[in-house]
Amino acid sequence: MSRIAYVNGAYRPQREACVNIEDRGYQFGDGIYEVVHLYRSRFVDEDLHLDRLERSLREIRLPMPMPRVALRQVLHEVARRNRISEGLLYMQVTRGVARREHAFPTEPVPPALVVTVRRIPPYPRDIESWTTKAITHPDLRWARCDIKTVNLLPNVLARQAAREQGASEAILFDEASGMVREGAATSFWIVDETGRLRTRQLDHAILPGCTRAALIRELDAEGIAYETGEFSLDDLRRAREAFLTSATSFVKPIVQVDGAPVGDGGVGPVTRQLFAIFARHVQGGDNRAA
């Protein structure tokens, strides 16, 4: 069956879908995107993703392409037409089509909206087979990483560097201070050498991860202590455990960084517990956070 995409008001076979060559997302990266996990026909943390979409659009002074209720209908219709109940949905909003000039179009143009979906394997059951390796990499991105923009070239280069070193993620750090920020496409956590669960505080230097936020809600509900604040590369290298969170990583243990084992090189007890907690969240919904 041909995959179906939504492009600017029409559902089309994906092989026939296209955007104008003067779309500002194509020419300038002038746009915002979101990726949402679909589990048993339910979008996991849907409101968190739509809230972040609206916030990112406000930050670049771009209106929503349609009211939220209508956008929800489009997202679910794309999933329905593709007959996908377990997958990843991608949505992208750009400033639309206009003559190529760096400043915003002088005459308003409609925002452009593209939505696609693809199948993925179900939530992993075996955490031992869900581990990964990472490298550290200087953060070369711009100063507003809290906006989920389609400008991802530094992230692409960091991920490529990880792949070339036999890893799947690059942990970005500030070269001046040596402080860890986040993964190239994930939020990053450690259990430090004293046993504290830690992740960086939110500010302009990192993306406010929706899976990060959902996990924090679960930690609060379970009474599990954690800290948000800066930590260094040295803290990372001495950590007992490390893991990633994202809509595609869920809770993903890191067992090696820069070729050296994290802790004893296996899945630690805190990560194992949080993997199970988040599996329950994905499978049962976020009822307690409503």
UniProtKB/TrEMBL annotation:
Pfam families in alphabetical order: Aminotran_4
InterPro entries: Aminotrans_IV, Aminotransferase-like, BCAT-like_C, BCAT-like_N, Class-IV_PLP-Dep_Aminotrnsfr
GO molecular function terms noted in the UniProt entry: D-alanine-2-oxoglutarate aminotransferase activity
SUPFAM superfamilies with a match to the protein in the record: D-aminoacid aminotransferase-like PLP-dependent enzymes
Keyword S-adenosyl-L-methionine belongs to the record: no
UniProt keyword annotations, A-Z: Aminotransferase, Transferase
Keyword Transferase set for record: yes
PANTHER family cross-referenced by the UniProt entry: AMINO-ACID AMINOTRANSFERASE, D-ALANINE AMINOTRANSFERASE
Family: Belongs to the class-IV pyridoxal-phosphate-dependent aminotransferase family.
NCBIfam families: PRK06680.1
Protein's UniProt name: Probable branched-chain-amino-acid aminotransferase
Organism: Sabulicella glaciei
